Amino acid sequence: MALGDCWKQLSWFYSQYLLVTALYMLEPWERTVFNSLLVSVAGMAIYTGYVFMPQHIMAILHYFEVIQ
């Protein structure tokens, strides 16, 4: 029963995502392309933040002389 409730909740969230982004109007293959691009851009942004943000934070801290 818990698995069914979980599936129903995920289905509701996906439906809300389609409605908010107006993706419900697209054909399935167009929706797949859009979602693939969205996931790719989000993944690249997370990766870039993970790799480069520590360097930028350290540079900012050195600039304001928080770290010697």
Largest sheet: none
| Weakly predicted, low-confidence segments | none
Distance between the termini: 58 Å
Proportion of residues in helical segments? over 70%
The portion of residues forming beta strands comes to: under 5%
Mean pLDDT: 94
Q: Element order, helices and strands?
A: HH
Shape: elongated
The number of distinct structural domains comes to: 1
Q: How many H/I helices?
A: 2
Task: Compute the CA-based radius of gyration.
Answer: 20 Å
The beta-strand count equals 0
Structural category is: mainly alpha
Organism: Seriola lalandi dorsalis
Membrane topology: Multi-pass membrane protein
Subcellular location: Endoplasmic reticulum membrane
Pfam families: SPT_ssu-like
Which helices and strands, and how do they pair?
Layout: H1 2-21, H2 28-63
Q: What does this protein structure show overall?
A:
The chain is mainly alpha-helical and 68 residues long. The protein has one domain. 82% of the residues lie in helices and 0% in strands. The protein has 2 helices and no strands. The longest helix has 36 residues, at 28-63. It is elongated, with a radius of gyration of 20 Å. The chain starts with a helix and ends in a 5-residue tail after the last helix. The relative contact order is 0.06. This is Serine palmitoyltransferase, small subunit A. One of its GO terms (biological process) is ceramide biosynthetic process. Pathway: Lipid metabolism; sphingolipid metabolism; Sphingolipid metabolism.
Sum up the structure in keywords.
68 residues, mainly alpha, 2 helices, 82% helix, endoplasmic reticulum
